[in-house]
Amino acid sequence: MKKTVTLYMRQRCHLCEEAKELLEELQRNWQFDLLEVDIDKDDDLTERYGITIPVVVLDGEEIQAGIININFIIEAFSVKNVDFIG
Prior knowledge:
The chain has a single domain (3-84), classed as Glutaredoxin (3-Layer(aba) Sandwich). Helix content is 35%, strand content 31%. It has three helices and five strands; from the N terminus they run E-H-E-H-E-E-H-E. It comes from Mesobacillus foraminis.
């Protein structure tokens, strides 16, 4: 079953754009759906995440926030059994 990665972000956020590019690059080798959520469109999300964005969530579990590290994400994908398609 294909996993879902949710990226909580906002517009005009350079760290968010970098995280999005990194996740799109990972989609070349890992099978997951990427869902982008703009926290500024939801008051609860804005209150919850505020300045901690970007936040990467894998199947409901927050795996990293702030500066996103590709090696950390790959390790989380391995642990969470995201399908590697190489």
